[in-house]
TrEMBL record:
Family matches, as Pfam families: PTPase (PF25516), Spore_III_AA (PF19568)
Protein name: AAA+ ATPase domain-containing protein
Gene3D superfamilies the UniProt entry points to: P-loop containing nucleotide triphosphate hydrolases
CDD domains in the record: AAA, R3H_AAA
Keyword Mitochondrion tagged: no
Length: 670
């Protein structure tokens, strides 16, 4: 059951004038930035019900969402500081958003706020200040971290070579209710979620709230593997911020992976929450857990998925990578180099969230697709989400991939959630809400349902099957009613024979997508073009009186001639250039398959010579005659064939009158 059952879901697709500044900063130097700037983006806004907002408090008011930490939690934190420093800090207007206090021996103490650092006192820290702070916290574990009993604060120590503490980083921990609203749909979906982001961006706070949400709202059996007691707080009774989730402490950091496995084996969890997966063993333990069908929510340090892919210890989290050497044929088909990188196996996590700030993130709905795209050197598709605390509003931006930009001007505002489409994801929160606008002749028809395609002499079942394989069955459908169709899909022969299709298309302002053959490859391309996932290419005829004709070209690379073909054509060339033309004699060629004979005939005709078929039905062959053809220009295919066989150029040195003789060629060198 959803806790925020009064959520309002507004689907609002339009050009959004602003991209959040911090998002832009994050994407600087990235090719995504251009697509974010240039592309029309779809925006989905989800407003949460007002109940989740509580009256803001000076201590918690400046934070996004709502802190569920108690005021005494902050008092516990401030007690770490000597009285004078405490008083000064307490008066700071941003005290509610305090992130950390840094105390280094012999240096001025610093307070870190979201707005920047602030010097608490001009008096440098002395041993006594450090001793005071240390006396208020528990023992430091072997990761040099400690906490304050029943609070979420984290105290990390810096030691000198004699192992004496000479510096402290004291981080304010707080449970922030509502901080997981930004990815509520992912949490609810039940897939495993990898959260990555730079230090201090709010990963621990986010997964703490996810743990609470899953345990309290979705009634799941949640076990937190709490390596440095950061999620559930210090002490044996966990902090209220984790709700009814259970917490397992870890005696020392090197045992984190053991405790992860132990959690699955002993406590029958449905979800395991783990902060900071950082070693190969932990990554392996995570993948073991995922294989046992347990939902996993974990964090790792890194800015982007690419960082994780490049990290040899964490690679396993995204399925691992391996280099593969392709055969010539395969490499040509895929249009890639022979040695490529590929994902080794399925990633441990279903989706990934790259945290940009406490209120912004990038969601990769399908981690496998993202990893594959990165390995193939293509931009991965993701969704940018931004939580607006003041409006209690979630905005989702889906950048259109770069390759889809630029050429779709005739079908403007073809706004589709491309990342979701690509991922084949069926968002339960907003099913069947693809909104498409076709702009035709100045009038815009708006619709909020799957694209309706009218097919002509193309099996509907074929189209639907292809859409299904592509994971796009939710966004494309077929219709019998051409008047309500968004697009027409027809074969080129049909279009030639039945010009009425164009007439109707023109009348209803519907684009016509024309395929040459009913192959899967052409249908895949057609589906992508209809949905605006692929540009139309140079062959698109511009709108003729509002009717847009889009010819779908074959992606197949032009086939190289086979050895047999080269051999047969070379035979023709030699016969013509050595015997037929200089000697004026007919030449009978070797028996060949009829397709090859057709090619030979084309080449003969390109020399403007006549030929006739001879031989038996089983062994057909061609005879080149020393007779000149009157007209016939060399065809395109023939000229290609000629190039392949390196023909010698014909010199026009004269010719005989009655059309039966040929121009003689100079004698060729031996
Ligand atoms: N949504 C939020 N609203 C207000 N404060 C937040 C929010 N998320 C995190 N914080 C604060 O930001 C600071 C850093 O948060 P957190 O410890 O969760 O970051 P982190 O990414 O886990 O850091 P690290 O990687 O160093 O462990 C903490 O003081 C925390 O209270």
């Amino acid at each position: 059951m959803r806790a925020l059952n009064s959520h309002v879901l507004l689907i609002d697709l339009h050009y959004h004038p602003h991209v959040p500044t911090s998002t832009l900063a994050y994407f600087r130097n990235s090719h995504f930035i251009s697509s974010l700037r240039r592309s029309p983006r779809s925006r989905i806004r989800c407003s949460a019900s007002p109940e989740i907002r509580r009256p803001s408090d000076r201590f918690y008011g400046s934070t996004p969402s709502t802190s569920t930490s108690r005021p005494e939690d902050l008092n516990l934190f401030l007690e770490l500081l000597p009285l004078k420093m405490r008083r000064k800090l307490y008066c700071h207007r941003e005290i509610g958003g305090l992130i950390e206090v840094v105390m280094d021996l012999g240096r001025k103490p610093l307070a870190r706020f979201p707005s920047g650092d602030w010097v608490i006192s001009e008096q440098p820290i002395v041993h006594e200040d450090l001793r005071h702070a240390i006396s208020k916290v528990g023992e430091f574990a072997d990761d040099n971290r400690s906490g304050i009993d029943r609070s979420l604060h984290r105290i990390s120590a810096i030691r000198n070579r004699k192992m004496q503490i000479i510096g402290l980083t004291c981080r304010v921990g707080r449970a922030v209710g509502g901080s997981a609203e930004i990815i509520r749909d992912l949490v609810e979906d039940g897939g495993s979620i990898l959260v990555i982001g730079p230090p201090g961006v709010g990963k621990t706070t986010l997964i703490r709230e996810i743990a609470r949400m899953l345990a309290d709202e979705f009634r799941k059996r949640v076990v937190i593997v709490d390596t440095s007691n950061e999620i559930g707080g210090d002490g044996d009774v966990p902090h209220a911020g984790i709700g009814t989730a259970r917490r397992m402490q870890v005696p020392n950091v090197n045992m984190q992976h053991n405790v992860m496995i132990e959690a699955v084996e002993n406590h029958m969890p449905e979800t395991i929450i783990i902060d900071e997966i950082g070693t190969e063993l932990e990554a392996l333990a995570a993948s073991t857990i995922a294989q046992r069908g347990v939902q996993l929510v974990g964090t790792a340090h890194g800015m982007t998925i690419e960082n994780i892919i490049k990290n040899p210890y964490l690679q396993n989290l995204v399925g691992g990578i391996e280099s593969v050497t392709l055969g010539d044929e395969e490499a040509r088909k895929r249009k890639v180099q022979k040695t490529i990188l590929e994902r080794k196996g399925p990633p441990t996590f279903t989706c990934a969230v790259e945290m940009i700030s406490k209120t912004e993130c990038r969601v990769h709905h399908r981690l496998d697709a993202t990893v594959d795209a990165i390995l193939a050197g293509k931009p991965p598709l993701f969704e940018v989400r931004q939580w607006d605390d003041s409006a209690n509003d979630l905005a989702k931006y889906a950048p259109v991939p770069e390759e889809n930009l630029g050429e779709t001007s005739d079908l403007t505002n073809n706004n589709i959630m491309s990342s979701d489409i690509e991922s084949g994801k069926d968002d339960k929160d907003h099913p069947r809400t693809w909104s498409t606008k076709w702009s035709t002749g100045g009038s815009v028809i708006e619709r909020s349902s799957p694209m309706q395609v009218y097919t002509n002499k193309i099996l509907e079942a074929d189209l639907l099957q292809v859409a299904k394989v592509m994971g796009l069955e939710e966004v494309i459908d077929v219709t019998d009613d051409i008047g309500t169709a968004d697009a027409i899909l027809a074969s080129s022969s049909e279009i030639r024979q039945n010009p009425w299709i164009r007439g109707v298309a023109k009348f209803h302002h519907i684009p016509v997508f024309v395929i040459k053959s009913n192959t899967m490859a052409q249908l895949v391309k057609a589906v992508r073009m209809i949905l605006g996932l692929e540009s139309f290419g140079p062959k698109t005829s511009k709108p003729l009186n509002d009717c847009l004709d889009i010819e779908i070209e074959d992606d197949e690379p032009k086939r190289k001639p086979s050895l047999e073909e080269i051999d047969a054509l070379e035979e023709v060339r030699l016969a013509i250039e050595y015997i037929v033309i200089p000697g004026g004699e007919a030449v009978e060629l070797l028996p060949r398959r009829s397709e090859i004979i057709a090619l030979q005939l084309e080449l003969v005709e390109s020399y403007q010579l006549a030929a006739e078929k001879s031989g038996t039905e089983q062994n057909p062959r061609l005879q080149i005659l020393p007779l000149r053809l009157n007209t016939k220009k060399p065809s395109k295919t023939t000229s290609v064939a000629r190039k392949k066989t390196s023909p010698t150029s014909v010199s026009s040195t004269g010719g005989s009158g009655n059309g039966t003789s040929v121009t003689r060629l100079p004698i060729l060198p031996e």
